[in-house]
Protein backbone atom coordinates (compact mmCIF):
# COMPACT_ATOMS: atom_id res chain seq x y z
CA UNK A 1 0.00 0.00 0.00
CA UNK A 2 2.82 2.38 0.90
CA UNK A 3 4.17 1.69 -2.61
CA UNK A 4 0.99 3.13 -4.17
CA UNK A 5 1.13 6.40 -2.26
CA UNK A 6 4.85 6.67 -2.94
CA UNK A 7 3.99 6.71 -6.66
CA UNK A 8 1.90 9.84 -6.16
CA UNK A 9 4.81 12.30 -5.80
CA UNK A 10 6.05 11.25 -9.24
CA UNK A 11 2.61 11.76 -10.73
CA UNK A 12 2.47 15.16 -9.06
CA UNK A 13 6.01 16.19 -10.02
CA UNK A 14 4.89 18.88 -12.52
CA UNK A 15 2.68 20.37 -9.77
CA UNK A 16 5.55 20.25 -7.27
CA UNK A 17 7.92 21.95 -9.73
CA UNK A 18 5.37 24.68 -10.40
CA UNK A 19 4.91 25.11 -6.65
CA UNK A 20 8.68 25.31 -6.08
CA UNK A 21 8.88 28.11 -8.63
CA UNK A 22 6.16 29.98 -6.78
CA UNK A 23 7.45 33.06 -4.98
CA UNK A 24 5.92 31.77 -1.74
CA UNK A 25 8.07 28.63 -1.64
CA UNK A 26 7.70 27.35 1.95
CA UNK A 27 10.29 25.35 3.83
CA UNK A 28 7.55 22.86 4.73
CA UNK A 29 6.73 22.57 1.02
CA UNK A 30 3.64 20.51 0.47
CA UNK A 31 2.24 19.51 -2.88
CA UNK A 32 -0.08 22.23 -4.12
CA UNK A 33 -0.43 25.75 -2.83
CA UNK A 34 -2.17 26.65 0.41
CA UNK A 35 -5.47 27.96 -0.91
CA UNK A 36 -8.50 28.60 1.27
CA UNK A 37 -11.53 26.59 0.20
CA UNK A 38 -9.33 23.94 -1.46
CA UNK A 39 -8.29 20.64 0.10
CA UNK A 40 -6.16 17.79 -1.23
CA UNK A 41 -6.86 14.07 -0.97
CA UNK A 42 -4.74 11.08 -1.94
CA UNK A 43 -6.77 7.87 -2.11
CA UNK A 44 -5.40 4.42 -2.90
CA UNK A 45 -7.29 1.12 -3.03
CA UNK A 46 -5.11 -1.97 -3.34
CA UNK A 47 -6.81 -5.29 -2.65
CA UNK A 48 -8.38 -5.04 0.80
CA UNK A 49 -6.30 -2.00 1.78
CA UNK A 50 -7.72 1.51 1.43
CA UNK A 51 -5.53 4.50 2.25
CA UNK A 52 -6.81 8.07 2.47
CA UNK A 53 -4.65 11.12 3.09
CA UNK A 54 -6.41 14.49 3.48
CA UNK A 55 -4.59 17.83 3.65
CA UNK A 56 -6.53 21.03 4.15
CA UNK A 57 -5.93 24.59 5.25
CA UNK A 58 -7.27 24.84 8.80
CA UNK A 59 -9.49 27.70 7.59
CA UNK A 60 -11.58 25.16 5.61
CA UNK A 61 -12.22 22.97 8.64
CA UNK A 62 -12.20 25.15 11.78
CA UNK A 63 -12.74 28.62 10.28
CA UNK A 64 -9.40 30.10 11.41
CA UNK A 65 -5.66 29.39 11.28
CA UNK A 66 -4.32 31.16 14.38
CA UNK A 67 -3.48 29.20 17.53
CA UNK A 68 -6.66 28.44 19.50
CA UNK A 69 -6.51 30.57 22.63
CA UNK A 70 -10.14 31.39 23.41
CA UNK A 71 -12.53 28.79 24.85
CA UNK A 72 -14.68 29.03 21.69
CA UNK A 73 -11.68 28.40 19.39
CA UNK A 74 -10.49 25.46 21.50
CA UNK A 75 -14.00 23.96 21.43
CA UNK A 76 -14.13 24.34 17.63
CA UNK A 77 -10.73 22.63 17.23
CA UNK A 78 -11.83 19.78 19.55
CA UNK A 79 -15.09 19.34 17.61
CA UNK A 80 -13.26 19.19 14.26
CA UNK A 81 -10.75 16.71 15.64
CA UNK A 82 -13.64 14.50 16.83
CA UNK A 83 -15.20 14.64 13.31
CA UNK A 84 -11.86 13.70 11.73
CA UNK A 85 -11.53 10.78 14.17
CA UNK A 86 -14.60 9.15 12.54
CA UNK A 87 -13.37 8.65 8.95
CA UNK A 88 -15.87 5.91 8.02
CA UNK A 89 -18.71 8.42 8.46
CA UNK A 90 -16.76 11.37 7.06
CA UNK A 91 -15.90 9.55 3.83
CA UNK A 92 -19.30 7.83 3.68
CA UNK A 93 -17.77 4.38 3.16
CA UNK A 94 -20.47 1.82 2.27
CA UNK A 95 -21.22 -0.59 5.13
CA UNK A 96 -21.20 -3.46 2.60
CA UNK A 97 -17.44 -2.91 2.08
CA UNK A 98 -16.79 -3.76 5.73
CA UNK A 99 -13.97 -1.22 6.07
CA UNK A 100 -12.31 -1.00 9.48
CA UNK A 101 -9.72 1.63 10.41
CA UNK A 102 -6.35 -0.05 10.97
CA UNK A 103 -4.39 3.16 11.61
CA UNK A 104 -5.17 6.85 11.69
CA UNK A 105 -3.04 9.91 12.31
CA UNK A 106 -4.07 13.55 12.68
CA UNK A 107 -1.53 16.38 12.63
CA UNK A 108 -1.83 20.14 12.86
CA UNK A 109 -0.22 23.00 14.77
CA UNK A 110 -3.79 23.65 16.01
CA UNK A 111 -3.77 20.20 17.66
CA UNK A 112 -0.61 21.14 19.54
CA UNK A 113 1.74 19.46 17.05
CA UNK A 114 5.00 21.26 16.32
CA UNK A 115 5.39 22.82 12.88
CA UNK A 116 7.29 20.58 10.45
CA UNK A 117 10.09 23.12 9.77
CA UNK A 118 11.64 23.31 13.24
CA UNK A 119 15.40 23.84 13.61
CA UNK A 120 17.32 23.13 16.81
CA UNK A 121 20.79 24.05 15.49
CA UNK A 122 22.37 26.49 17.99
CA UNK A 123 25.21 27.32 15.59
CA UNK A 124 22.94 29.35 13.27
CA UNK A 125 23.61 33.05 13.16
CA UNK A 126 21.02 35.70 14.04
CA UNK A 127 19.97 36.24 10.42
CA UNK A 128 19.02 32.58 10.10
CA UNK A 129 17.27 32.68 13.47
CA UNK A 130 15.28 35.71 12.28
CA UNK A 131 14.43 33.88 9.05
CA UNK A 132 13.33 30.80 11.06
CA UNK A 133 11.20 33.00 13.31
CA UNK A 134 9.56 34.56 10.25
CA UNK A 135 9.00 31.11 8.70
CA UNK A 136 7.60 29.87 12.03
CA UNK A 137 5.21 32.82 12.21
CA UNK A 138 4.30 32.41 8.54
CA UNK A 139 3.58 28.72 9.24
CA UNK A 140 1.02 29.71 11.86
CA UNK A 141 -0.56 32.14 9.41
CA UNK A 142 -1.11 29.18 7.09
CA UNK A 143 -1.95 26.30 9.42
CA UNK A 144 -2.77 23.01 7.75
CA UNK A 145 -4.63 19.98 9.05
CA UNK A 146 -3.34 16.60 7.88
CA UNK A 147 -5.35 13.40 8.33
CA UNK A 148 -4.02 9.99 7.26
CA UNK A 149 -6.17 6.85 7.43
CA UNK A 150 -5.56 3.21 6.58
CA UNK A 151 -8.51 0.83 6.35
CA UNK A 152 -8.82 -2.90 5.87
CA UNK A 153 -11.94 -3.66 3.82
CA UNK A 154 -13.51 -7.14 3.95
CA UNK A 155 -15.33 -6.64 0.63
CA UNK A 156 -13.36 -4.06 -1.39
CA UNK A 157 -15.51 -4.66 -4.49
CA UNK A 158 -18.26 -2.72 -2.66
CA UNK A 159 -15.97 0.32 -2.88
CA UNK A 160 -16.63 1.20 -6.50
CA UNK A 161 -17.01 4.89 -5.57
CA UNK A 162 -15.55 7.33 -3.07
CA UNK A 163 -18.27 9.70 -1.87
CA UNK A 164 -16.96 13.01 -0.50
CA UNK A 165 -20.39 14.64 -0.05
CA UNK A 166 -20.20 14.25 3.75
CA UNK A 167 -16.81 16.02 3.80
CA UNK A 168 -18.38 19.01 2.01
CA UNK A 169 -21.43 18.95 4.36
CA UNK A 170 -19.29 18.67 7.50
CA UNK A 171 -16.84 21.37 6.39
CA UNK A 172 -18.87 23.83 4.25
CA UNK A 173 -15.92 26.22 3.79
CA UNK A 174 -14.34 23.50 1.63
CA UNK A 175 -15.32 24.34 -1.95
CA UNK A 176 -13.22 21.79 -3.82
CA UNK A 177 -10.88 18.90 -3.17
CA UNK A 178 -8.06 18.04 -5.55
CA UNK A 179 -7.93 14.24 -5.58
CA UNK A 180 -5.24 11.81 -6.72
CA UNK A 181 -6.95 8.42 -6.93
CA UNK A 182 -5.28 5.05 -7.40
CA UNK A 183 -7.58 2.05 -7.76
CA UNK A 184 -8.35 -1.04 -9.81
CA UNK A 185 -8.96 1.11 -12.91
CA UNK A 186 -5.61 2.91 -12.63
CA UNK A 187 -4.51 6.34 -11.49
CA UNK A 188 -6.44 9.55 -12.04
CA UNK A 189 -6.39 13.15 -10.93
CA UNK A 190 -9.84 14.67 -10.40
CA UNK A 191 -11.37 17.67 -8.73
CA UNK A 192 -14.31 17.00 -6.40
CA UNK A 193 -16.86 19.74 -5.66
CA UNK A 194 -20.12 19.93 -3.73
CA UNK A 195 -22.04 19.19 -6.93
CA UNK A 196 -19.60 16.47 -8.11
CA UNK A 197 -18.61 14.77 -4.87
CA UNK A 198 -18.65 11.10 -5.97
CA UNK A 199 -15.49 9.69 -7.54
CA UNK A 200 -15.16 6.34 -9.29
CA UNK A 201 -12.42 3.93 -8.21
TrEMBL record:
Region Disordered: start-end pairs: 108-143
Domain of life from the UniProt record: Bacteria
Signal peptide: 1-20
Pfam families xref list: ZrgA
Keyword Zinc-finger: no
Keywords for the protein's UniProt record, in alphabetical order: Signal
Keyword Signal carried by entry: yes
Biased amino acid composition, Basic and acidic residues: 126-143
Name listed for the protein in its UniProt record: DUF2796 domain-containing protein
Organism: Pseudomonas veronii
